[in-house]
Amino acid sequence: MWETVAQAVINGLLIGGIYALVSIGVTLIFGVVKIVNFAQGEFVMIGMYISFFLANQFGLDPLLSLFVTMPALFVIGVLVQHFLIRRVLGPNDMPQIFLTFALSLLLLNLALMLFTANYRTVHTSYSDEAFHLGGLYIPEAKLIAFGVAMLLSGALWVFLHTTDLGKAMRAAAQNRDVAMLMGINPNRVFCVALGIALALAGAAGSLLMPFYSAYPFVGQVFVLMAFVAVVLGTLGNVMGALIASLMMGIAESLGIQYVGADSGLIVVFAMLLLTLAFKPTGLGGKAR
Amino acid sequence: MIRHGLSARTLLLLAIGLAVMIALPLVVKSSFAIDIFIRILLFSFIGTAWNLMGGYAKQLSLGHAAYFGLGAYTSTILQIDFSVSPWIGMIAGGIVAMLASLPIGWLCFRLRGPYFTIATIATAQALMLIFLKFRDFAWGAEGTTIPNLGNAPLMMQFESKAAYYYVVLGLLVVGLAITSIIERSWMGYYLVAIGEDEDAAEAIGVNAPRIKRDIYMISSFLTALAGTFYTQYIYFIDPATAFSFNISIEAALVSIVGGIGTLWGPVIGTVLLETTSTLLQSWLGSSIGGVQLTVYSLILMAVILWRPTGLIGLITEAWQRYAKRKPARA
Question: How many angstroms away from the CA of B69 is the closest CA of chain A?
Fold first, then answer.
């Protein structure tokens, strides 16, 4: 009995690491630039397709393609901020919501046109390997993905707390006007925030590739999860998003185990709606 | 300038417009063309329903498929299980949607801006999952076909496509009339005030939660009517069509592209988007997936970046420039 529970918890925790990479990106952009990036999931999808093509054409291991996807998506992030998002920053909600939403629709449907709706997979030497720990089963590819995800999250935390640029980003998140008075260049900070957030999404794509299929709609799964985690973990809070993502992974996995294979998403939506009903400021909880 | 009535010239233009719309199926006989007109009228109507809340009050919902689906399912369940006419089912569906908007609104209005939008997406998706999961309640994922009774106007089934055209034209006229009445009433001003700055509106005494709740109910009611109509038109219902995210997207898209928070915006937006989509389909064929939404999203981005007031804004600006030049010439 406890073994089934423990197994479900482990499965959820491991996939929760990937959710964390996506939701940390969403919460970072929300905290610093004050917009919600509806296209975050599509950047995971782009990361997956880059890894898939590198593996397919050049036989590059998806984990090594991290060194391609992360810089590539960092650059895309800077371009998206500089040419698109910068132009809609203002008091008005509509352009901000629908610009990134349009970007999401565009990338998704371009992928559908270029790559069709087929599922693409990469098979690596470790795709089917697993560790056995007592009666528990720990897939190697998922464990590596979780480990790298935690490493990247830790690196981001260190960056935000020790470097000048990181501190500038946190300052801009706390109070943009005062930060600007202190001489922080907002557009530069915003570009870096977008770049880092998209690089994390790209990393999620590469890490997923050994055990997950790439298809145009794949990002939607992760972005919904990320939105819930970001609300749960208090908007704009990186550590909150990380912890909430791991919890969501576990909740989804327990839902699949005990309610039924297709109820993972129902559990997630139920969590979102319950959070909204009882704690709309997130579990960390101070009013904004 | 506050106008409480319609000027004689506007009334004349409206009468001519309506006469043209009524005469259209008598002239155009191609059922392909009628089908496109029906799509344009249907999405103009859904956009008009969305625009009441999303446009005037700027509560940017991407979950209106929830009400489209509830309307479709209510009338279909009533028709198949209880032999109730879809005309009655349509109103019943509207009432169900209106009631559903109360708890959904209670939840979603706790959030503002983008997180309101996300919450509305989640509620619509959750409803779709519920209808997928409970198969004995409403046929599950396979859906069901509507029994074809031939020509049965009392059961909202017609042999000629033109009849469907008139039904949806009627819906659009009702939607535009309601919008026009609200636009000129106190509620319209409250909605615009909330859309501009909710805190400021509350500070001067607008009861924002109540106004938002009321307009959400009206908007949901109208959206549900479209759901019933669509199911009767295609003779089929399943959760993926009835609660399709594309319905939510297109409702918002046509309003924004045409002119958010304006009476004619959704109509103009739908005409542009649906015409583009039809031309693309006849040019490329419908074999390539994703073409339509790729073009829609490019148009949406262009509008947001260069003309946030939509096509209506473009047209009024051009008209004003023309009107300014005119006295100089005279």
Answer: 18
